[in-house]
Amino acid sequence: MRYALKKIRNITGKDITTGKNKFILSDLKTATITGSSETVWADGQDGTHLVGFDVNKVAGLTADNGSIDIGYLETQTGGVLRKVTGGNAIMFAETLTVSLSEDQATATTSHKASGAAGSEIKFVYPFDETGDPDRLNACAQAASATAQEFAYDPETKKITLPTGKFTEGDRIYVEYFPSFTSYQELDNDADRFSETVAVYVNLWLTDICTKKDIPAQMVLPAGKVSGEISYQLGDQAAVQSLSIDAMTTCGEKSLWKLYKYDMSEITD
């Protein structure tokens, strides 16, 4: 029997203990199934090979997925995506336009800044001649506005700027942390590492003689997911690269098994 390996349909990872689904990668751009071993030679006179035998057999799977799958990223980092309620860890940056009324310059943030009273925004930056925030002339926050410092009222979201420093229409740059009803967070903890999962690779084979497509599945009972993460950004969208090394399990020597099957032979 001869077959052409037509394509990999998807790659599924399941918790090796509970069987719970960890990820499904179905936007595969490229995939490579690898395997190798080392040959050890017994040599005779003048270096002639007398016999060779293989050791250290390894197998694995590499691929590029066109989308970023959070489940696979969780498996790489050892983290878990969780819902944060009432959090304020996300920095919000914006450019505001100054208004002038009765010689008092003010600006209003789009959202209420969180933080300790008198330290919600911390700094206001004018812009320099290149259009960048002017850090050398940044104004610090205080309880009330002075000639050098600004004040902020989180209830009205109004910034009262230093007296005599800004005019109508000036632009300022601010950074602050608004509060959210909820958001999702994935923590890449330095003490947590990539996981080992059961891997199911769904394939299409094509029979060379009949030209018919045949479903197949490669199963890695234990696949060590690489924790190496590299997202290359540029003129194209980033892809999610994956690398999984096959391992044996307790009482089993199998690195992977390939199943070729016919859907009509399922017994219900």
Could you explain the architecture of this structure?
By secondary structure, the protein is mostly beta strands. The protein has 2 domains: 3-81 and 188-265, Pnp Oxidase, Chain A (Roll), CATH 2.30.110; 92-184. Helices cover 3% and strands 49% of the residues. Strands 1, 2, 3, 4, 15, 16, 17 and 18 form an 8-stranded antiparallel beta sheet that branches. Strand 15 and strand 16 (213-225) form a beta hairpin. It is elongated. It starts with a strand and ends in an 8-residue tail after the last strand. The mean pLDDT is 95. It comes from Candidatus Egerieimonas intestinavium. This is Major tail protein.
Oligomeric form? single chain
Which structural category do the helix and sheet elements fall into? Answer: mainly beta
Which CATH architecture of the largest domain is right?
A: Roll
Tell me the fraction of residues in β-strands, as a range: over 45%
CATH topology of the largest domain: Pnp Oxidase, Chain A
Low-confidence stretches: none
Main beta-sheet annotation = 8 strands, antiparallel
- Which bin fits the share of residues in helices? under 10%
Order of helices and strands: EEEEHEEEEEEEEEEEEEE
CATH domain class name of the largest domain: Mainly Beta
Q: Total number of β-strand segments?
A: 18
Shape: elongated
Rg (C-alpha, Å): 30 Å
N/C terminus separation: 28 Å
Total of helices: 1
How many domains, as an integer?
Answer: 2
Q: Overall mean pLDDT score?
A: 95
Organism: Candidatus Egerieimonas intestinavium
Protein name: Major tail protein
